[in-house]
């Protein structure tokens, strides 16, 4: 069974390579491939299926929302990407990852390099993408964790949530079904992508829970307020004992109640 799953994963990776190559050639020839985000979503879903991820989704993404998620693994991108036409903000190193980095770049991922002072430009680009009816997901911790705690949420990129007509929506990601997060899913430290992929193949049936939490209109809020709201909402949803919580917002008077959204639950073996 291990080898069958492994061959399925290789098959989807090869399929992804062909799709990327065809799309890259088409774009070089001047073709506008508007359907590629849907194709990327399909591919993310097939990869999750090949890895035998058991995904439970609670709630749904709000329209024109900046999605703010905790960060545990490279799996976060295909798991979330399979839920809709979601673009991502990722660290620049991911662009050089075989296949996943190429797919992410062609699908419209924003890449940020440490110390490059790109925040202002990225906020404008993210706002433009959101105005087109797409979702953009960011991981404000800036790095992955083992899932047992939340790190500090860097507020600088929450500037995109201050734009008029944009909502910010926390998204809580959890791997495993027990009180203790699954130890296989995290991609941390000096992990190597290929070895991590092999570990996942040896542990089929990994359970994943995605919670789309109540969105907030951050148009008149400070970035620190928005960051604190998202951190607290995700922390509460995961039930974590967070030791490195965000500092309290400096402008409590500006806080507004979140917008209510229905939270339906669905189980998926994507």
| Helix content estimate | 25-40%
Number of helices: 7
Structural class: alpha/beta
N-to-C span: 19 Å
Largest sheet: 9 strands, mixed
Task: Describe the global form.
Answer: globular
Mean pLDDT over the full residue set: 80
Whole-number count of domains: 1
Overview of the structural elements:
Strands 1, 2, 3, 4, 5, 6, 7, 8 and 9 form a nine-stranded mixed beta sheet that branches. Mean pLDDT is 80; it is low at 248-264. Helix 1 (2-28) runs antiparallel to helix 2. The longest helix has 27 residues, at 2-28. The protein has helices spanning 2-28, 36-50, 76-81, 100-107, 119-131, 193-201, 223-238, and strands at residues 54-58, 65-69, 86-91, 110-112, 135-138, 167-175, 207-212, 216-217, 265-268. The chain has seven helices and nine strands; from the N terminus they run H-H-E-E-H-E-H-E-H-E-E-H-E-E-H-E. Strand 3, helix 4 and strand 4 form a beta-alpha-beta unit. By secondary structure, it is α/β, with parallel strands linked by helices. It has one domain (2-268).
